């Protein structure tokens, strides 16, 4: 089997797994390494096993997919997701939300409470309730354990699907056109009974998700409204939206969702300021030529309510910053920051403008005076970054030691700590920080080698050496645990 064909098969398998579609066995000559599967989803995997699998696949995702590691956007989607999770039932795991740089409309969820959305959703979600409806749907896939249920049905026919294929979602994320083409072909040949099973999962996620949406204070009509957009795009386009390949949308889903929303108390909800600022930031900093921050959007916002007008000005400042027209960017942003001096969106962008103009001292002075959110992760990273750029690595390291302890899964903290350590001349600590970044990407062999180098450069018998050696032991245990999920 050629590499190209193998990749196409793996992409089709993983996409069908996320949607609940049963596919033929890819290879029948390999033993099933997964736990013995019983008659219910609860007998398929324990919650601890799901968490371990989720950890493995998140690391693969970081290594191979275009994740947006923007602290502000990460904070926003996690706060939005957490708001929904607080109103969900049967929550058995922590939830983590990730944003991928991809203009296609799509979202997916997998083991361990991990939910991934494409940046393209911001393009087509006209309001925050519509974006929340997609997250609520994916959260419901997790709480209803649809992936575990699908695993149960797959055990006899496709033991490898859930071991290696799940990680191959990265192929579809990195090369969506090729991946989704293979997926579309596979789905076209799938038996109708298997498709019905998928629709059952989707309808259940709709039914549970719309309840979560309403309880969280969002407009339940947003779910059928967004589905209607997808249906119309599919009807008038030769290529359906990518989300419809992994989340089939028959008329029954749309009508059922609309009927349920009509039975709920209507809730007129305005989009939050954070949603509008996040949308401006996604388009302005991470949009492609097909999805930029357009004059039309800014003009429309300029004619809208106060929140939209503010988003328009923020968007203009971003566009000037991206064009390296720093004085113009500062002129647009300064009135906003003066009116809201503790606003993290404005502080973050003004810090970037300062650093772009080699004014680290000015950024440091401003951030040190912020009183409203001294423990904000975003502001901690901003100040640490300003200290690094301002040639104050010791001050940066004081922040980053606390930050990486509290946020060990954020690569931004480890990257800054590596820079600060290098500037301070701490070679061992630099290597250790780089090792943690590699470990987050699933590159455990390389991480262990760097930690070994850090240990050898530390004083014999020192606390630092003991810490590095203990971390090596932890990563080796992680390697052993992850071997059962690696491709064979």
From TrEMBL:
Residues 1-28 form the signal peptide. One of its GO terms (biological process) is proteolysis involved in protein catabolic process. Zn(2+) binds at residues 137, 141, 202. It is found in: Periplasm. GO terms for molecular function: metalloendopeptidase activity; zinc ion binding. InterPro entries: Mito/Outer_Membr_Metalloprot, Peptidase_M48, Protease_BepA, TPR-like_helical_dom_sf. The keyword Signal applies. Its cofactor is Zn(2+). Residues 237-260 are annotated as: Disordered. Functions as both a chaperone and a metalloprotease. Maintains the integrity of the outer membrane by promoting either the assembly or the elimination of outer membrane proteins, depending on their folding state. This is Beta-barrel assembly-enhancing protease. It comes from Affinibrenneria salicis. The gene is bepA.
């Amino acid at each position: 089997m050629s590499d190209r064909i193998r990749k196409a098969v793996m992409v089709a398998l993983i996409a069908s797994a996320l949607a609940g579609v049963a596919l033929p066995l890819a290879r029948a000559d390999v033993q099933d390494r997964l736990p013995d599967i019983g008659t219910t989803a609860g007998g398929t995997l324990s919650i601890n096993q799901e968490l371990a699998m989720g950890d493995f696949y998140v690391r693969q995702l970081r290594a191979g997919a275009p994740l947006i590691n923007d602290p502000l956007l990460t904070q926003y989607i996690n706060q939005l997701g957490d708001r929904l999770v607080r109103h969900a039932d049967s929550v058995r795991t922590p939830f983590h939300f990730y944003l991928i740089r991809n203009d296609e409309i799509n979202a997916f969820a997998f083991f361990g409470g991990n939910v991934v959305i494409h940046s393209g959703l911001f393009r087509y979600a006209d309001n925050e309730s519509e974006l929340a409806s997609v997250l609520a749907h994916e959260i419901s896939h997790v709480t209803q354990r649809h992936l575990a249920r699908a695993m149960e049905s797959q055990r006899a026919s496709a033991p490898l699907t859930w071991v290696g294929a799940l990680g191959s979602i990265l192929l579809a994320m990195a090369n969506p056109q090729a991946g989704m083409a293979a997926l579309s072909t596979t789905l076209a040949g799938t038996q109708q009974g298997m498709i019905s099973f998928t629709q059952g999962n989707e309808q259940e996620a709709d039914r549970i998700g719309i309840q979560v949406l309403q309880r969280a204070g969002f407009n339940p009509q947003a779910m059928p409204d967004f589905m209607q957009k997808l249906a119309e795009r599919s009807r008038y386009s030769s290529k359906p939206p990518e989300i419809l390949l992994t989340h089939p949308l028959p008329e029954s889903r749309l009508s059922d969702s609309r009927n349920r929303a009509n039975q709920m108390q209507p809730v007129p909800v305005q989009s939050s300021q954070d949603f509008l600022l996040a949308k401006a930031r996604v388009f302005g900093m991470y949009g492609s030529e097909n999805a930029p921050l357009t004059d039309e959007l800014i003009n429309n916002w300029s004619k809208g309510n106060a929140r939209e007008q503010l988003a328009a000005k923020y968007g203009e400042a971003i566009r000037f910053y991206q064009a390296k027209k720093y004085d113009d960017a500062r002129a647009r942003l300064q009135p906003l920051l003066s009116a809201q001096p503790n606003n993290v969106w404005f502080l973050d962008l003004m810090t970037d403008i300062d650093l772009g103009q080699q004014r680290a001292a000015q950024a440091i002075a401003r951030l040190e005076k912020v009183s409203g959110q001294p423990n904000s992760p975003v502001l901690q990273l901003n100040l640490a970054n300003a200290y690094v750029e301002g040639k104050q690595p010791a001050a940066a390291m004081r922040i980053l030691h606390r930050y990486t302890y509290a946020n060990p899964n954020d690569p931004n903290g480890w990257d800054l700590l590596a820079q600060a350590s290098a500037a301070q001349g701490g070679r061992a600590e630099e290597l250790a920080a780089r090792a943690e970044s590699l470990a987050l990407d699933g590159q455990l062999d390389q991480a262990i080698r760097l930690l070994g180098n850090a240990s050898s450069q530390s004083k014999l018998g020192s606390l630092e050496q003991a810490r590095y050696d203990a971390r090596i032991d932890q990563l080796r245990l992680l390697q052993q645990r992850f071997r059962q999920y690696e491709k064979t």
